[in-house]
Amino acid sequence: MPANGSNDLLTEGAAAKTGSLNKAPGLLIALLVAVASFQLNATMLAPAIQSMATSLHTSTSNIGLSSTLFLFAAALAGIVLPPLSDRIGRRPVLVGSIAVMALGSLISTVAPNVVILDVGRILQGICGATIALGILTLRSTITVATFGRYLGILTAINSGVAGVDTLLGGVIVDAVGFRGVFAFMLVLEIIAVVLLRRYVPQNAATSSGPLDWIGMVLLALTMFALTLGLTLGFGQAGWSAPATIASMVGTAVLAVIFFFRERSAASPLLPVVVMRSRPVWSLLLTTFCTMASSFAVLLFLIPAYSQDASAGLGLDGTKSALLFLMPFSLLGWALAPVAGQLAPRLGYRVVMWAGLVGNIVLLVLSALLLHNMWLLAACVFLMGATYSAAALTTLNGLGVLFAPASYPGILPGLNASMFNFGASVGIGAMASALGAAGGAGGYREALFIAVAFACAALVAALLIPGRSTTAEKI
User: How far is the C-alpha of 380 from the C-alpha of 19, rounded, in Å?
Assistant: First the structure.
């Protein structure tokens, strides 16, 4: 595809309608609460990793697996729910997914063991398309001129609630344990359902025809095989193990079957013309690798290391949140709206590239300075600017800006899926590295895995084509 795009594939992000959020403040509040209720499953639970492992008599790597299951379910939801919302509207899909997440939070709150916790976490993952659906709703409601600013606000929430969520999570964990965190999230999710039902307008259907359930199953199996292969490869099994090889071969076979299925399907999940589009595949690969690196480090590896009494720093939940989680979240909160305003002027790609290069530098420094608590904290803090603000804001925006005109929900949904799928793979790979190596060496090895993913993200980002309009520059 040419660098300036093609009219049948690229749009201005589904043609923003005239209007302003000043006329509907309830809509913005409802979307912010919904996105926050999803994000708390990562940020607020980060200080609870050791509490869950201790209370449920399991290991940190098993708790990492529960997070992997949550993110994998969220990735699948990102595939299914946006195309469904094209057919039945955004509001019922948003309300339904948050309601299922609330059920998962209830189950997780009372879970007697890690197996039941896994069930609850999988149900929580059904909300995985929340940010994509929220951005699509905004794009169809406000003007192009104000989209970048509000995109930054939603992204800021999607990165954490100004650091208060991580601190509050640490305080609750230290006071009553991890169950208190799930109970708090349950209350917020109930509020989100009420607000969404009240303030989100019902949009007209933009697509017709049945959903491609066969395509969805094939894509889900492909993603599962890839997740399993990468987890085994980075873990004790290694890349030469028969199970690892079988998983990767299975991934390739399933991907080919999925391609031919989509080429012949009457109502494909992902039309072949979209799959071949350079903006689409390069963006999805960038998102996947970014989340497999930075997200997995910030919301799993660093909290686990900071609370590890034997191989790490041995901090409690509150101190871990204050030193590592809250500062980077606050910086991302402050700078994400700024990144959202700068991106259309400087170019979404320029802001994204700057963030990705910064991620690589900071991850390398983190691996080298792992033994120094304060220098490690400084690296994590600065990732609030490079990852939370610059990278996340632009990746979220490009998912809508590159959306095919005929399938407005497909790319935002797939991009949201890659957010969750990448995080799932990253956490799975790092948890496997910790289980295989153990000690401080395992954490350092996991950080260099993150560096490899971060470099791959930058390479993919350099392949994303640009284009310009009077209002936006990509």
Answer: 39
